[in-house]
Structure prediction request, 228 residues.
Amino acid sequence: AQSVAQPEDQVNVAEGNPLTVKCTYSVSGNPYLFWYVQYPNRGLQFLLKYITGDNLVKGSYGFEAEFNKSQTSFHLKKPSALVSDSALYFCAVRDMSGKLIFGTGTRLQVFP
Amino acid sequence: KAGVTQTPRYLIKTRGQQVTLSCSPISGHRSVSWYQQTPGQGLQFLFEYFSETQRNKGNFPGRFSGRQFSNSRSEMNVSTLELGDSALYLCASSLTSGSTNTGELFFGEGSRLTVL
Prediction:
């Protein structure tokens, strides 16, 4: 069965520093991977996706993610964190039936 | 272009009652999915509708049901509410459906249900 794991419940980073939010996946076949962000009392907003092609995917708000097939990872990154990036981040994979399976989420806290 | 619209945004019900939540997808989107979000269970898939047909269903009891209309708007219903049904219910739309769908889901802001 397809699944994703987000090993960190929370990530803390100082403003201006680079950030990484980790995600590993388990799929049979080619993975369709996604990152979403959720601000308090809001729905999920799409950040970026990997379908095929370049392993470095660029997305919204300066975020990017690196697809690593050998490590089955799809970590979310940003070169310089902003306080406004503080939110809940979800990694997701599309399963064989077409639905998205989400990770448990990682809370990102950026300190000024 | 308008986003996914969910109504109501907040509602309070008591145990045993039923509730109906509504979702209007982005214009042109034919697939609507529903998710339940709770602090303990995270995001759990409820069901997906495409062209008025249920295409996929998660592991929820029969008290949870849904439907989709010809204009792609969708409703979900929960009958005989339990305290554990308190959650944020999220609706998402996409252009297509199925395992070859490479498109992202677009989410509404959710309906927050509190069961007392």
